[in-house]
Design brief:
The protein is an all-alpha fold. The chain has one domain. The chain is built from 8 helices and no strands. Helix 1 crosses helix 5 and helix 2 runs parallel beside helix 4. It is globular and about 45 Å long.
């Protein structure tokens, strides 16, 4: 049985789509459905590229931890900083869909396909599923950060924030690649907690700014 397609579906794409549906409630009318879908698909493509590149790196090397953080956030930036998205409020939302797509394919490719020995171990597989959700949440949050930075005209500031936040995240991912190891499960737990924290922050602190500024804009136009 081919595990990768199933893992891509259940560990990546479906949770990412559910998160997208949940988070976008309350932001209706601020984005185009077609563009959300397209950025999600582009995110999947970019995530696949990033996962392939990461699969050729050696875990535990500081140089790779830093370079991969730059590389993965620059991939998102290249798309979100296109002329059609610059200084647009909805770019923050497209950053969310791009990041969710990025994480949805990146996760199963890297962890499940790269660690085939866990497939027969229910406990280990459950740990990977939890860690994979953390990866989806993290990349979604970084997409929001970069998109909001472009909207605010402060791309470099928010890009370097995203890169800085990814450094400890990359270290945790490298930790999880040292399997088999008793610390593997702690690494997966740390991934989900880290991803949840940054995702909670952007959903509760960053994205609501779009609603606040949208109301202010309407008042100024009346």
């Amino acid at each position: 049985m081919d595990v990768l397609p199933q893992a891509s579906l259940f560990l990546g794409i479906i949770p990412a789509l559910l998160l997208l549906y949940i988070v976008l409630k309350g932001y209706e009318g601020m984005y185009k459905d077609k563009t959300v879908f397209l950025t999600f698909v582009v995110g999947i493509i970019l995530g696949f590229i990033a996962a392939v590149v990461r699969s050729f790196t050696l875990p535990g090397m500081i140089a790779y931890i830093v370079l991969l953080a730059f590389f993965e956030q620059l991939l998102k930036t290249i798309v979100l900083n296109m002329r059609r998205f610059q200084r647009k409020q909805e770019t923050t939302i497209y950053g969310l869909s791009l990041g969710l797509g990025f994480g949805s394919v990146f996760t199963p490719f890297l962890i499940v396909a790269g660690s085939a020995s866990i497939v027969g171990d229910t406990t280990a597989f459950a740990a990977v599923a939890a860690g994979s959700l953390g990866i989806i949440l993290f990349h979604a949050a970084m997409g929001v950060f970069i998109g909001y930075g472009i909207y605010e005209g402060k791309l470099l500031k928010f890009l370097f924030i995203a890169i800085g936040l990814q450094l400890p995240f990359n270290a945790l991912m490298d930790w999880s690649r040292f399997y088999p190891n008793v610390y593997f499960f702690y690494a997966q737990l740390a991934l989900i907690l880290y991803g949840l924290f940054v995702f909670w922050y952007v959903v509760k602190k960053v994205m609501p700014q779009l609603l606040v500024k949208g109301k202010k804009r309407k008042r100024s136009n009346t």
